[in-house]
Specification:
Blueprint lengths: L23 E3 L2 E15 L18 E16 L2 E14 L9 E12 L4 E12 L19 E12 L6 E13 L14 E14 L4 E15 L12 E15 L5 E14 L3 E16 L3 E13 L5 E15 L3 E14 L11 E16 L2 E14 L6 E13 L2
Antiparallel strand pairs: 1-2, 2-3, 2-19, 3-4, 4-5, 5-6, 6-7, 7-8, 8-9, 9-10, 10-11, 11-12, 12-13, 13-14, 14-15, 15-16, 16-17, 17-18, 18-19
């Protein structure tokens, strides 16, 4: 779904439990409710390259509304924290058919235990019953929203030791399950993606480099089975296996004005067992925040990695994003971000003579007016495009919205 700086996001998981989280005290619990309402115009709602015959005006702008309610319930226990979260969002379109799953729900639970040694054990589970946020299921953007309900669950356990002046580590293991609701008529509207289930794991070692910076060594691993969601006779039978390993070296910590930075680069191996598709080469990522003047913040993000394609191959994504954010007069906040991504597929498609290459462009902007610390009005807009070397894979989409946010958003 084209959100373009969407006006809602659930309350962030507490990054530290050294201070009480914000909200309304109710006994020992702290409650953080919020409500968000958004209306606007969106062009090319489903990000298509052309309209189906039965919907000749599907690329035209139409009114879209979204309403979301959410609640985070946090329980500080000494220097530890328990948090439960829930969000429900309803979407309505002016001309398009009602969503197959009009109510999108997100459930979350977090258990963060801190110890006197400085170690932390963090266990979390996030479950989404959705049908719009394709970024949650397809990081590279190959799949475009076509109103396909899905269930996504991510259970993660992490043990950390990250004292800046000492050697440290982070160990993480996650189980991820994605399941699309089977189409009623696979021949009419098949799901253009795949289900997946499997594990992600990583290990990071940190060596102090003086001050608040570390030299870091990373190892990441992915093991996933892919399933065909359109064939009910193949339920539980994978059609291929994704196997990925990376070893990277990096730097990270805090730079000028205590702004965070992370840089990592190394070697990755990616395979799709059963297809013969394999990548061996450079992978990496970088995040950098810079303070300009007293109040302006710049952020930069770069990453390169292989991802599994819906076709019998992989594709390499190179992405660059930058943003600027600045408050004004204590009541206003403005932000602008731009992103460029280039995807190149690993193998020729059947019957083709050139490798497919996609270019994606995204521009987003917003302006917030904080009428009260718990009441904000947001104006937002943006535009994105994909230009592909293959016919009928281009699209353009724009949106402009206004919204009201109440509570601890």
């Amino acid at each position: 779904m084209l959100a373009l700086l969407t006006l809602f996001a659930g309350p962030a998981v507490a990054r530290s439990v050294g201070y009480p989280p914000e909200g309304l005290p109710v006994g020992r619990w702290i409650l953080a409710p919020y409500f968000i309402s958004q209306v606007g115009m969106e062009e090319n709602l489903f990000r298509l390259s052309s309209c189906p015959v039965e919907e000749p005006d599907c690329l035209d702008a139409q009114a879209v509304s979204r309403n979301a309610i959410g609640l985070a319930a946090r329980l500080p226990v000494r220097n530890s924290l328990i948090e439960l979260r829930y969000q429900a969002e309803k979407r309505q379109y002016e001309r398009a058919a009602p969503p197959l799953r009009p109510l999108e729900e997100i459930f979350g639970a977090l258990f963060q235990f801190s110890f006197s040694t400085g170690d932390q054990l963090i266990i979390s589970d996030n479950y989404t019953r959705g049908s719009s946020d394709v970024r949650a299921i397809d990081e590279g953007g190959e799949f475009e929203f076509q109103d396909r309900p899905y269930d996504l669950n991510r259970f993660e356990a992490m043990w950390t030791r990250t004292n800046p002046s000492r050697k440290g580590f982070i160990v993480r293991v996650a189980r991820v399950d994605l399941n699309f609701a089977p189409p009623e008529d696979p021949l009419n509207k098949p799901i253009p993606f795949f289900d997946y289930r499997g594990f992600e794991s990583s290990f990071e070692y940190r060596q102090p480099m003086g001050g608040r910076n570390w030299l870091r060594v990373y190892y990441d691993s992915r093991r996933f089975n892919h399933y065909e969601p359109n064939d009910r006779t193949q339920v539980g039978v994978p059609f291929r296996e994704e196997v990925a390993d990376t070893l990277q070296l990096g730097l990270g910590g805090l730079a000028g004005r205590a702004k965070p930075f992370n840089l990592r680069v190394g070697y990755g191996r990616f395979r799709l067992e059963g297809t013969g598709a394999e990548y061996n080469g450079i992978v990496g990522a970088a995040d950098l925040a810079i303070g300009v003047g007293a109040r302006t913040n710049l952020t930069f993000q770069v990453w390169r990695r292989p991802l599994p394609s819906n076709f019998d191959t992989y594709y390499i994504v190179n992405s660059f994003r930058m943003g600027v954010e600045r408050p004004f007069l204590r009541q206003f906040m403005a932000g602008l971000s731009a992103q460029y991504s280039r995807s190149e597929y690993g193998d020729l498609f059947e019957g083709e003579t050139e490798i497919r290459k996609d270019h994606r462009y995204l521009l987003e902007a917003y302006f917030d007016w904080f009428v009260h610390p718990r009441v904000a009005i947001r104006l937002a807009g943006g535009h994105q495009e994909r230009v592909s070397s293959f016919d009928d894979n281009d699209f353009k989409a724009s949106a402009a919205t206004i919204g009201l946010r109440l509570g601890w958003f």
